[in-house]
Amino acid sequence: MTLLTTVFAAIICTIIWYKNDPKNEMKVGILCWMYWGASLMWLVDAIFEYVELHAEYFTPAPVDMLNDFCLGLSAVALGLVIWLVILLIKDPNGVVKAALFKKK
Hints:
Helix 1 (2-20) runs parallel beside helix 3 and helix 2 (28-53) packs antiparallel against helix 3 (62-90). This protein has one domain (2-100). The longest helix is centred in the C-terminal third of the chain and has 29 residues, at 62-90. The relative contact order is 0.16. It has four helices and no strands. The protein is an all-alpha fold.
């Protein structure tokens, strides 16, 4: 489930990047790289787990699937938080700078 969650996030993010952000104003490409990296990490984990468990890999317990899904959502949420921090630091539209140096 972690692999599926991060792959879906990576695909959705890549579609958004491809369609809406050719000028890279919102730094969506960074988010795509994080999600594709997480997907690759979970793919390697799935391969090694399959080598270890063989046929049992395809019959996980429901509790394990729920735990994996929560872990996948946590990875997606952490990626979003990191992306937001990068976006606030880079401040491509100058919104944060304008708010901080606004004169009353």
